Every structure is written in structure tokens, then in C-alpha cells.
């Protein structure tokens, strides 16, 4: 047993020296970057670099050739389809950070709290599996030989199994972790809800992949197995479109951000806030169970997105019976009410010590940005749901609501992963013993958040031309305005990518403040 532990520690040291951390950058390493944060850097790099490549190729295609369609076997087409493999990345990354946070909570010191060595190795395994899943999707396309397709399929299945097993091990490590020198503090409501949502998310994703993957391999050009229900040209990303897969990542991020604030400042949420989190989690899981069941039942005649599986935001409400409408209305209302109460409770968290009566510390920049993006994120899907409800009664305005919501969805695709990186930067500051990240890193958080909100606003303005096609026929001033808004949207996208890169540099380079 001792030999196994020694070998694991040696392997972890090798990974630490070669995959992230200050040593790889040639910087002094008084406090090495934690494995969870190294994996977060790698996953964030994968996530944003792929979408940056797709956006760059799309812009180049439109300006150089003027073509609107995306050839299936082109580099752009393969990258766009392969983004399906990235849908689980935000949940995997926030799960790693949550495990690290649990270790800090039990150790009482961010400098020494660390998960078990086997859990840290599972983090590297899950990260490697995410890369393998993406690469096999990129290189496995229709014109390959049968042998290459079978080999890629085997690698893909192995990577998926590795990802799920490593994620399960990380969850287990969070549940069984114990304090070494004191009584083990029970898991708080935030961590309980986060772990529950993560497990349910992986289960639903696994079921959908198990049913859709064979059809996708038979016909890679079809929509089967793709997470994108839209067929119009601008929707080049395979984004998860059903509500049951949209809400959990952002809720997990929000709960971990609140838990980080609680651990750092020794706070705890009020009882009614805990109840709001439990309500939101239960309603979300019920929706996931209903969506998964409906998807499996319709598997033989539907793509990855069936109307019933999609929920009210994307399914045609006229195709629902009264019970389904009532179900989605009640559960979605519970999610929104619970999330709103959770957000309101952040500033009013209580101190764990009854002797402390001082006013709570102000919200950190990272916490403010996560809360702002959560509001915009859920607000956009409220608009999406409203557009679906109005589709039958409002004519062209319903078309505007639906197309606007689709544009907003693309703008918010980066929100969960962006929030994960912000939380990672703040956790790194805790690890090196400072309260807040560098000022310039906090500015990058605010700039990135503003960039996302700007893209959402531009999506609403540019999609307004869908109302009866009226704006298309207007004067040159209006057309110039729309082109300007579109330009601002692309500039905001570039600023977002630059800000994320700066946050990754901040996380890797951040060092303790030297005392005089």
C-alpha cells in the first residue's frame, strides 16, 4: 500500500511539473498551483480556444468566399460538431473546484487543504478524457475508412467511460473526505445541491449519448447526436438547447461561488436560503428526469432534442397536453423563484459565530460577476420561454422573440465556463493567502462580464430585423446602425476571449505578497 501511495505522489509531482503551475512558466513556486486549478486552466483553454477557432473560421468564410453554408467535412464543420463534447466541460471543472473547496473547508487553511492524492489523479484523468473526446469527434467524420471509424469509436467510448468514472471518483472523494485534526464539518446546502445537480447532469448526458451516439456514427451529417436544434447558418455551435441541460451548469457555478464566500469569510446562509436552494435543485432534477424519460421514449423517431425533452422554451407548446404544460410551468417557476431567493441571500449571509455581529464583508468582484451573469443567463431563458408561449398568438413578434432568444443563447454559451475561471482565480488568491486577486485580474472579470452582457444586448438589437423583415427595407441610417451593432458584438467577443486569457495568466502567475 505504501508503494502505491509513493508511486501516486511521484506521478502527481511529474504532472505538477509539466502540466501547469509556476514551474512550467519558469517562475518561483513558493505556493504551487493546486491540481484542480491546473485542470481548470487546461479545460478553459480547450473550451474557449475551440469556440474561438470556430468563430474565426466562420468570419473568414463569410468575408473571403461569401458562402453562408458550412460544409459538413470542412474544418469548420467538424469543429462545430465536435463542440458537443465540450458541453460537460464546465460541470467537470466546477466539480474539481468544489472538491478542492471542500478540502480547504476541512483543513481550515487554503494553503494546506488538498483532496486525496487519488482524487487529484482523477482530476487529471477527467481532463485528459475531455481532450480525447473532443479530438476523436474532430477526426472521426464520414469519409474516413471503416477501420479508422471503429478505432475512433473505441477511443471515444473509452474516453467517455474514463470521464464518467473519474468524475464519479471526484464526487465520492468530496463526500467521504474527513478532517484530520478536528470533527468533520457536514456538507453545507450549497455543496449538497451542487453535487446532486452534477450527478444528475452526468446521468442525463450519459443516457442521451448512449442513445444518440450510434445514430450519429451511422450518419455524421445528420442532426442526430447534435445538441443544436437550430438549422440556420449562424448556429454553428452544438450547444445544449434543452432547459434540463442548460440550468444545472449555471446553478452549480452559483452554488460553488456562494460556498467559496462562506468558507473564506466563515459565513453560512440563512435557513430560508437553504430551502430555496433545495427547492431549485429538486425542481431541476424533476425536469431532468421528465426530459430524459420523454427523450428515451421518443428515441426511435426523434433527434437528441424532442419537443417534450426540450421543455417549454424550445418545444412547441401547442404539442403539449395540459398536464405537460402544468408540469413545465410549475417546475420552471420553482427554479426561478428559488434562484432569485438564493441570489438575494448572498449579501445577507450570517456569521457562523454567534459572537460576531459586525456587518458582512462586501461582495467580491468574482461574486458580483457570477451573480450578474446568473441574472442575465436565467433572464435570457425566461425570454426564450416567453417567445415559445407567444408563438401562436403574436405572429411576427413571436418570431422576433424566438430568434432573439437563439442569438442570446449563443452569446451566453460562455457564461458558465467564464464563471468557473473567475472562481478559480479567487480560489488561487485564497491559496496564496491574499483576500482578493490582483486589481488588474478583477478588472478583467468586470470587462469579461460586460462583454457577455454587450453581446446579449447586441443580439437583441440585431435580431429585431426578424419582425416582418421591416428593418431590412429601411433607410441607410438604420442599416448602418445594424452593421455597427454587429461590429460591436464581434469586438465584445474578442474582448471576452482576451479577458479570459488574462484570467488564466493571472491564475498561473499569481504569487504571495512578499513581506518587507
Automatic annotation (TrEMBL):
It comes from the Eukaryota. Keywords: Membrane, Transmembrane, Transmembrane helix. The chain crosses the membrane at residues 35-59, 79-97, 117-136, 157-177, 189-207, 326-349, 361-390, 411-427, 439-461, 481-510. This is Uncharacterized protein.
